[in-house]
Design goal:
- There is one protein chain.
- The chain is built from 6 helices and 20 strands.
- It is an alpha+beta fold.
- The protein folds into 2 domains: 64 residues; 217 residues, Fumarylacetoacetate hydrolase, domain 2.
- Strands 1, 2, 3, 4, 5, 6, 7, 11, 12, 15 and 18 form an 11-stranded mixed beta sheet that branches. A 5-stranded mixed beta sheet has the order 9-20-19-16-17, with no helix packed on it. Strands 8-14 form a two-stranded parallel ribbon.
- β19 and β20 form a beta hairpin.
- 45% of the residues are buried.
């Protein structure tokens, strides 16, 4: 099942994209795809209600797509989780997942404008598989148990300002939490519709040039391991998001880095999860 939120920013309508291409308004069943929705088992409830066939259908023409998750409580990110990405940046592959946090209000729609921060010279891109938590994860017993707390998957662009992140001292958060730095969507694809989260191709283009072309099978730590691992250090709540890392091909890994500037265009896709398209503006 593909969940999405459409309409003006801040006033999105929750909807389901059916297999035959209809966009079904589910706001009468689920006011929004937020923590409350996931806590009460919203995806299973929607699947049952959709079978009745009495919900209104939206005209999708010209509709903006928002983030498929409304107001995530937190965004937990994993660094250096692809072997080729660690290699290109000259970093040693970690023996445990590298964890950092990203401000939740960085989330925007998949096709919204991304703003280059004021004073930025090193704004970078990162296509990532994002995991959306469906039920509370606290001290999970094993990686296998993680499968039961995942609501589904979507695309994140984990944008980064590398000078802020690496040259301005302190934690990575200041280079990760600039406004608009986490486009998400277009869909949240429920976990039952993804046969293997460790076999998804992910790609990113800058101004039409393919820069990233990887597969989630290249992760050092897989999705289930990551959710289990995180639950040993923090409580993951319904609606929280985990960005699972990016493959090789980012600007900082280039011999002569070409960072993003206003006017640049990004396109991202992950197998089965849709496509993002962003134009860069200036903050």
């Amino acid at each position: 099942m593909k969940l999405l939120r459409v309409g003006p920013a801040g006033a999105e309508t929750p909807a389901v994209l059916t297999d035959d291409g209809r966009l079904v308004d589910v706001s009468s069943v689920a006011p929004d795809f937020d923590r409350s929705f996931f806590e009460r088992g919203g995806p299973a409830l929607l699947a049952t209600r959709l079978g009745i066939g009495d919900l209104p259908v939206l005209d999708s023409r010209g509709l903006r797509s928002g983030s498929p998750v409304a107001r995530p409580g937190k965004i937990v990110c994993i660094g250096l989780n692809y072997r080729d990405h660690a290699l290109e940046t000259g970093a040693t592959l970690p023996t445990e997942p590298v964890i950092f946090m990203k401000a939740a209000n960085t989330v925007i729609g998949p096709n919204d404008e991304v703003l280059v921060p004021r004073g930025s010279l090193k704004t970078d891109w990162e296509v990532e598989l994002a995991v959306v938590i469906g039920s509370q994860a606290r001290y999970l017993a094993s990686p296998e148990a993680a499968a039961g707390v995942i609501a589904g998957y979507t695309i994140s662009n984990d944008l980064s300002e590398r000078a802020f992140q690496l040259e301005r001292l302190g934690q990575w958060s200041k280079g990760k939490s600039c406004e608009t730095f986490n486009p998400m969507g277009p869909w949240l694809v429920t976990a039952d519709a993804i046969a293997d989260p460790q076999d998804l191709g992910l790609r990113l283009w800058v101004n039409g040039e393919l820069r990233q072309n990887g597969n989630t099978g290249q992760m050092a730590f897989g999705v289930h391991h990551l959710v289990w691992y995180l639950s040993q250090f923090m409580v993951l709540d319904p609606g929280d998001v985990v960005n699972t890392g990016t493959p090789a091909g980012v600007a900082i890994g280039m011999a002569e880095p070409r960072y993003l500037r206003a006017g640049d265009v990004l396109d991202l896709e992950i197998d089965g999860l849709g496509h993002q398209h962003q134009t860069l503006g200036q903050a």
